[in-house]
Amino acid sequence: MLAPRPFSRRSPSRTFLAAPLAAFLFGSGCSPSHAAPPEAAVAVRSAPVTRGTLLAKVRAAGTVHPKDERLLSFKVGGLVSRIRVNAGDPVRRGEILAELDPTELSAFARQAREGLEKAERDRDRARALFSEEVVPRAQAEDAETAARVARAGAEAAEYNLRRAVLSAPDDGFVEERLAEPGEVVAPGRPVLKVAGRGRGFVVRASLPDRDALGLFPGEPALAEIDARPERPIEGTVSEIARTASRATGTYDVEVRLDPARSGDLLGGLSAKLEFARELEVPAAVPLSALVEADGGHGAVFSMEKGRARRVPVDIAFLEGDRVVLKGALPGVRSVITEGAAGLSDGTPVRLVP
């Protein structure tokens, strides 16, 4: 009598039941060990890292002024008798603009002339007496000195009398009238503010130390007048202060405008200046490449074997649309710009033109 056959774990019945279950769970034609599809590469654009010399633009706000601006005042004090011009009037070189009452100054001049005549008579008398050995040499020499002193006093009085009249130093116009007839003015007190046309117009602005350093006279500049922005005017740097202002800590810069294009300007117009200068930097990247910026720190992404590599950076300062870094970014020749904001370290990327 035959013994009963033991049950096998690989029986056809179990195999038949397992196959439909696997198909139901994993789908037709699939196996439980099938891998997920590869991650799609992110399309990005890149830009080179700038090292060494960076051409930067410096911008500043300023004001238009005539190059020759003068405050006219009388050398001596006195009563203002006449002012012949008003603010805005054109003037010609040598034209009389204002006068003092000459009564007192004329009297001083006459007094000085009379004193000179007396001193010269005393000198001549002392010479004659000294030649006859009537008076000592010292007395004759004192008379000579007194005559010279009297002559100097007469010349000074005549000079002050001539300075009782203000004349235009150059062709131009009156900017401001600072006194009126009948006022008593002190010596040196401004009476008129005039501007000459002979040397054209300039724009004066203030620059911070980082922008002023490395800027030299003679360098080109461009001025945009706020009231006429469609017609920028070329110019050159004419003056740079060597000491910062105590009040603001900035440096005064003057740009002389092209006379052929600035002849119709007015003093006091607002303008914007633009300079181009070279900066020596360890490395600079486009502003769009910077991510995770926090104070003086941030990061950029470079491409390495088809993947994004995060590179931490230290920020020195911003220059226009570029970020100047403190380090040189060794081994990084270009950084990702467009698409950088959505990347993480190791993300697959592909470069598009």
How would you describe what is shown here?
- The chain is of the alpha+beta class and 353 residues long.
- Among the domains are: 46-54 and 280-351, conserved putative lor/sdh protein from methanococcus maripaludis s2 fold (Beta Barrel); 59-67 and 198-279, Efflux pump adaptor protein, beta barrel domain (Elongation Factor Tu (Ef-tu), domain 3); 102-163, Helix Hairpins (Orthogonal Bundle), CATH 1.10.287.470.
- The chain contains five helices and 20 strands.
- The protein has helices at residues 12-26, 103-131, 137-162, 209-212, 259-262, and strands at residues 42-44, 46-48, 50-73, 78-83, 90-91, 96-100, 165-167, 172-177, 184-185, 190-207, 220-225, 228-240, 251-257, 270-286, 291-294, 297-304, 307-319, 322-325, 334-336, 349-351.
- The strands form four sheets. A six-stranded antiparallel barrel has the order 3-10-13-12-11-14. Strands 7-6-4-9 form a four-stranded antiparallel β-sheet, with no helix packed on it. A two-stranded parallel sheet has the order 1-20.
- Helix 2 (103-131) runs antiparallel to helix 3 (137-162).
- The radius of gyration is 44 Å and the shape is elongated.
- 22% of the residues are buried.
Summarize the structure.
The chain is α+β, with helices and mostly antiparallel strands and 353 residues long.
Named CATH topology of the domain at 59-67 and 198-279: Elongation Factor Tu (Ef-tu), domain 3
Give the termini separation.
86 Å
Strand content: 35-45%
Unreliable segments of 5+ consecutive residues? 1-31
Average pLDDT level: 87
CATH superfamily (homologous) name of the domain at 59-67 and 198-279: Efflux pump adaptor protein, beta barrel domain
- Widest sheet: strand ordering: 3-10-13-12-11-14
Series of H and E elements: HEEEEEEHHEEEEHEEEHEEEEEEE
* Count of β-strands: 20
Shape: elongated
CATH class of the domain at 59-67 and 198-279: Mainly Beta
Q: Percent of residues in helical segments?
A: 10-25%
Largest sheet: 6 strands, antiparallel, barrel
- Summed up, the helix count is 5
Please give the radius of gyration in angstroms.
44 Å
Class by alpha and beta content: alpha+beta
